[in-house]
């Protein structure tokens, strides 16, 4: 029975609002903290569920607490006939943004995402967990000031790969059932081999190719039974080498897949090498780490087009994406919807997380905040450049704008400030980087009198094609 509209309070201060999602696991509601007025997400699971997992998921969230891009678990408990998990409210998933952008991301957006996604996976691995269901639906963008941050969710299938007491890796096993989403599952997962860190990274490789090309070769396979379909998907993956899968893409994608597929069961991946692989490509392409994604540009274009046509923008829809121009404090709750939800035929796992995406008015607020933040950053950059030119008679030291720089963190929640729980403006997940050697150094050009073109050519050297093993 739906709890929508019944003004139920859970955890002493969280009011259940409208329903924003459902699945075999239970129901997801938009909620409100009645003491602060803040919107939150409330995930409910029946205490009679055949395979209850919400309590386990809450424990995983608390173990991972403090990491960049890890939602904060505000409260977990039992209320009546439900297990209840109260968490941060987030924006749309990468799958929904992919659909919003006509199912194709530019290389720049893919590389911006790859950098953050690698850091999220590295962080949970550093805490002794593997996710086991890496897919676009399980990565959600933040809202408000954290609109540029990718958040990792849905740890219902997560598993410890290392004993927390002895630090010993789990043993190699075979004949395991397929866990996760077949479209993005690794070859070894299809073969029934126990999953480890390498499998999370292989799934990420398929996601990146999916974002670049719009689809994967094993999509759309038909079969009479699920087992037959999964076997056909496995066969297609095994007979599609990385070079063929990544044909027409930059060589870095094939190098990435070949590397993660070559890892042994208990190998520790070289996350820094993989990040540098894509960062060097990013620099060579001449991109800038301005965190302007494809959906940001699309939203700005739609807004500009509507203004030029003199159209009233509250509340008409453009491609099912609403726009609410009112200030955040004046917006009416539950009037507009967000970005389009996944298509009818899109598969969601039995551990589908709560999301704001197409059901929350905060989605349009998030997109507006992303644009506002970007404009403010551009204005600050111009102001700094003007001050340097006014007060300095020497040419400024040049640092490529396309190289990520150290920036301050903003605390995610009370009690976590300074512990890595804040939003990264540019530098991503420093706490999980391990050492300063994992960070990209920003080279300084010695000859300030040279032209900008010559300076940049000194900095951006071609990426070496050699491969490394951990």
Automatic annotation (TrEMBL):
EC annotation from Swiss-Prot or TrEMBL: 2.7.11.1
UniProt catalytic activity: L-threonyl-[protein] + ATP = O-phospho-L-threonyl-[protein] + ADP + H(+); L-seryl-[protein] + ATP = O-phospho-L-seryl-[protein] + ADP + H(+)
CDD domains: STKc_CK1_delta_epsilon
Alphabetical UniProt keywords: ATP-binding, Kinase, Nucleotide-binding, Serine/threonine-protein kinase, Transferase
InterPro entries: CK1_Ser-Thr_kinase, Kinase-like_dom_sf, Prot_kinase_dom, Ser/Thr_kinase_AS
Sequence similarity: Belongs to the protein kinase superfamily. CK1 Ser/Thr protein kinase family. Casein kinase I subfamily.
Name this polypeptide is given: non-specific serine/threonine protein kinase
Species whose genome carries this gene: Lichtheimia corymbifera JMRC:FSU:9682
Lineage, highest ranks first: Eukaryota, Fungi, Fungi incertae sedis, Mucoromycota, Mucoromycotina
């Amino acid at each position: 029975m739906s709890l929508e509209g019944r003004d139920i309070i859970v955890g002493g201060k969280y009011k259940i609002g409208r329903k924003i999602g459902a699945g075999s696991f239970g129901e997801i509601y938009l909620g409100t903290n009645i003491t602060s007025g803040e919107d939150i997400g409330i995930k409910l699971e029946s205490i009679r569920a055949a395979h209850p997992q919400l309590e386990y998921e809450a424990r995983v969230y608390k173990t991972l607490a403090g990491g960049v891009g890890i939602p904060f678990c505000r409260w977990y408990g039992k209320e009546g006939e439900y297990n209840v998990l109260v968490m941060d409210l987030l924006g749309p998933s990468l799958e929904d943004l992919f659909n919003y952008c006509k199912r194709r991301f530019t290389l720049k957006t893919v590389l911006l995402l790859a950098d953050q996604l690698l850091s999220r996976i590295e962080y949970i691995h550093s805490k002794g967990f593997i996710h086991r269901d890496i897919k676009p639906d399980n990565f959600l963008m933040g809202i408000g000031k954290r609109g540029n941050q990718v958040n990792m969710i849905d740890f219902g299938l997560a598993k410890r790969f290392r004993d927390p007491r002895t630090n010993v890796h789990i043993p190699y096993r075979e004949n395991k059932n397929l866990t996760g989403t077949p479209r993005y599952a690794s070859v070894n997962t299809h073969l029934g081999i126990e999953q480890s860190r390498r499998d999370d990274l292989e799934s990420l490789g398929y996601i990146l190719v999916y974002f670049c090309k719009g689809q994967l070769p094993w999509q759309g396979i038909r079969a009479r039974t699920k087992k037959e379909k999964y076997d056909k998907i496995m066969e297609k993956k095994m007979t599609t080498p990385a070079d063929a899968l990544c044909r027409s893409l930059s060589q870095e994608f094939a190098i990435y897949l070949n590397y993660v597929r070559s890892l042994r069961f208990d190998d520790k991946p070289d996350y820094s090498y993989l990040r540098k692989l894509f960062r060097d490509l990013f620099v060579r392409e001449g991109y800038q780490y301005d965190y302007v994604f494809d959906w940001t540009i699309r939203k700005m274009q739609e807004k500009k087009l509507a203004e030029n046509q003199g159209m009233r923008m509250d509340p008409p829809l453009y491609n099912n994406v609403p726009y609410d121009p009112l200030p955040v404090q004046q917006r009416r709750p539950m009037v507009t919807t967000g970005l389009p939800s996944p298509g009818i035929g899109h598969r969601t796992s039995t551990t589908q997380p709560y999301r704001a995406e197409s059901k929350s008015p905060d989605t349009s607020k998030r997109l507006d905040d992303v644009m506002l933040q970007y404009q403010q950053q551009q204005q600050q950059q111009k102001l700094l450049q003007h001050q340097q030119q006014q007060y300095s008679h020497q040419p400024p030291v040049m640092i490529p704008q396309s190289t990520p720089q150290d920036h301050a963190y903003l605390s995610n929640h009370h009690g976590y400030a300074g512990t890595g729980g804040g939003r990264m403006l540019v530098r991503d997940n420093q706490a999980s980087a391990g050492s300063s050697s994992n960070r990209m150094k920003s080279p300084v050009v010695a000859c300030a009198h040279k032209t900008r073109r010559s300076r940049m050519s000194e900095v951006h050297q071609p990426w070496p094609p050699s491969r490394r093993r951990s």
